[in-house]
């Protein structure tokens, strides 16, 4: 027996290994390649010549019998996987050696189970950003390549949910089963697939819908210092999409948890979560998640656009997104440029915002409207990130700190805010009303500053100032109270025809509120028609003038008592 074993070292080695595994309770030996099959064949021959096999432990005997029975069904399959080695770990970034076939945006797996995204390729090394914690990862660990790019679950199951950029649920309502899995970065629609932006996306803000209209498929940048109402502006725009057939996405990038929770609570209070998805990458999340958040949310939104639906996506905000990318780039030892941002920071946002579009009928007819937010420092629009975004987008809404402190809300600077789509995205009635409004507001600002120095002005100028003051008061609007299109047209018509010129300044808001309630109660069919179509007929002209004349008479009588 000893000679027999010495003459067959492979068999002895494998039998010893089988016995040791049986005694230790480990898993049976797995057959991995053709060499193992050959050895097992020789085992079957050897076992037949061994004596005392009845004394072999039962587990070993059963295992050998099972292997012998399965020999003819085994097809040798050699699998090769690329493996890299961890060289350096720090702050959510890992440097690897090896993996010569890896590509940008490819997923790799670390021994702890954490996934990483390849972001930087060098001659001998590559840099990976971690999509989880770096706890337990250390130098010398082996990293496995998957050969696959990062995919994000998309589908109707995301509506009404709060998720992170990887579509992991954050609302404790269970995991999300996506209809499909899409790449987090996708090519923007081609020029051939697009069509001009002509359909309005109503925000519910009188000043925006009248002065800087937004169309479905447009990219409108919102700029302003901290605490000037940027988030309130976009949240109310989401609230105004109720019953409008628009799917909404709110992407919180680097925001404090308390701020994001306040937004979510507002959406819930106004029943807006039914058509809204909130994607959260908080300030304390890894920089990789903050970097991925807008791209992943855009892929989720594009699913609905390609189904032919209209989608609104809000990026709050891209300044913090650029900061996260700068943090990653400096950790990757990329050379810093202006304001320490890497040289490709323009491409960072251009390839994101270019995905917003209005598709033609052949491509499904859907639209993706983007409202990116960027923060300025002391109103400096010439900073690196704001100027980049201004050149990428189709217009900008600029919020002024001085106006905000004066109580003008929304604090939109009408002189510097612009929509490059303009009246093409307005309904006819609103386009006629607002055609001269921007000029009137700009002239009012000019003469107001002039009269502030105590200069004598004539009666025409005083009248212009009085009307401008009432215009400004009329366009001021409290938060979370978006107005229907019909209400906006009625109020703007009243102001443009001088019906508010003799209303005391402190009573303008009261007059506005009471007249709207009276008009909707007395003429509900006319009001609903304007809401639906945005058009005013001859009947509306007559009814409107009779209604406001009668209301003004009664209103002044009540005030004179």
Q: What characteristics describe this protein?
A:
elongated, Elongation Factor Tu (Ef-tu), domain 3, alpha/beta, 42% helix, 561 residues, 6-stranded antiparallel β-barrel, Rossmann fold, disordered N terminus
Please tell me about this protein's structure:
The chain is of the alpha/beta class. The chain has four domains: 2-73, no CATH class; 83-149, Elongation Factor Tu (Ef-tu), domain 3 (Beta Barrel), CATH 2.40.30.20; 210-425, Rossmann fold; 433-560, ATP synthase alpha/beta chain, C-terminal domain (Lysin, Up-down Bundle). The protein is built from 19 helices and 17 strands. It has helices at residues 2-6, 9-24, 34-49, 58-70, 206-211, 230-239, 257-269, 287-305, 318-331, 345-353, 384-392, 401-405, 428-434, 437-451, 459-475, 485-496, 508-522, 524-533, 538-560; strands at residues 83-90, 93-98, 106-109, 115-121, 125-130, 142-149, 151-154, 162-163, 180-183, 221-224, 246-253, 276-281, 310-316, 357-358, 367-375, 395-398, 418-419. Strands 8, 10, 11, 12, 13, 14, 15, 16 and 17 form a nine-stranded mixed sheet that branches. Helix 3 crosses helix 4 (58-70) and helix 10 (345-353) runs parallel beside helix 11 (384-392). The longest helix is centred in the last third of the chain and has 23 residues, at 538-560.
């Amino acid at each position: 027996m000893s000679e027999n074993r010495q003459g067959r070292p492979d068999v002895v080695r494998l039998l010893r290994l089988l016995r040791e595994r049986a005694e230790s309770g480990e898993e049976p030996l797995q057959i991995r390649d053709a060499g193992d099959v050959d050895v097992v064949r020789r085992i079957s021959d050897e076992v037949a010549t061994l004596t005392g096999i009845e004394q072999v432990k039962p587990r070993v005997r059963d295992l050998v019998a099972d292997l012998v029975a399965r020999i003819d069904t085994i097809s040798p399959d050699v699998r090769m996987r690329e493996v890299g080695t961890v060289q350096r770990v720090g702050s959510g970034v890992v440097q690897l050696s090896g993996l010569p076939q890896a590509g940008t945006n490819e997923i790799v797996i670390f021994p702890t189970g954490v996934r990483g995204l390849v972001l930087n390729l060098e001659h001998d090394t590559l840099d990976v950003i971690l999509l989880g914690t770096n706890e337990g990862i250390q130098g010398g660990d082996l990293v496995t390549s998957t050969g696959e790019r990062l995919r994000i679950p998309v589908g109707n199951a995301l509506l009404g949910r709060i998720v992170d950029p990887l579509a992991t649920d954050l609302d404790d309502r269970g995991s999300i089963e996506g209809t499909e899995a899409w790449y987090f970065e996708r090519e923007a629609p081609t020029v051939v697939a697009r069509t001009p932006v002509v359909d309005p996306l109503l925000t519910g803000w009188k000043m925006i819908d009248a002065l800087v209209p937004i169309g479905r498929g447009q990219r409108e940048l919102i700029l302003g210092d901290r605490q000037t109402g940027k988030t309130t502006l976009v949240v109310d725009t989401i609230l105004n999409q109720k019953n409008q057939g628009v799917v909404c996405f709110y992407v919180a990038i680097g925001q404090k948890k308390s701020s994001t929770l306040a937004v979510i609570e507002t959406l819930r209070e106004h029943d807006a979560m039914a058509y809204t998805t909130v994607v959260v990458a908080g300030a304390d999340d890894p920089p990789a998640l903050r970097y991925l958040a807008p791209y992943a949310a855009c892929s989720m939104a594009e699913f609905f656009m390609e189904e032919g639906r209209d989608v609104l996506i809000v990026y709050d905000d891209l300044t913090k997104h650029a900061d996260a990318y700068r943090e990653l780039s400096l950790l990757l030892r990329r050379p810093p440029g202006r304001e320490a941002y890497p040289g490709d920071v323009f491409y960072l946002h251009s390839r994101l915002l270019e995905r917003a579009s209005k598709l033609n009928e052949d491509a499904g007819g859907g639209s993706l409207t983007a409202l990116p937010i960027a923060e300025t420092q002391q109103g400096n629009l010439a900073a690196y990130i704001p100027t980049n975004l201004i050149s990428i987008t189709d217009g900008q809404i600029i919020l002024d700190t001085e106006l905000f402190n004066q109580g003008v809300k929304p604090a939109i600077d009408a002189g510097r805010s612009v929509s490059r789509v303009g009246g093409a995205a307005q309904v006819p009635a609103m386009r006629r009303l607002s055609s001269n409004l921007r000029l009137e507001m700009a002239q009012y600002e000019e003469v107001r500053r002039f009269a502030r120095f105590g200069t004598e002005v004539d009666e025409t100028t005083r009248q212009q100032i009085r009307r401008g003051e009432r215009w400004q008061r009329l366009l001021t609007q409290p938060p979370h109270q978006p107005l229907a299109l019909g209400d906006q047209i009625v109020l703007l018509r009243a102001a443009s025809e001088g019906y508010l010129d003799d209303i005391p300044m402190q009573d303008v808001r009261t007059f506005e509120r009471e007249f709207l309630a009276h008009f909707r109660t007395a003429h509900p069919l006319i009001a609903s028609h304007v809401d639906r179509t945005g058009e005013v007929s001859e009947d509306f002209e007559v009814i409107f003038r009779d209604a406001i004349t009668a209301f003004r008479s009664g209103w002044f009588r009540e005030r004179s008592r």
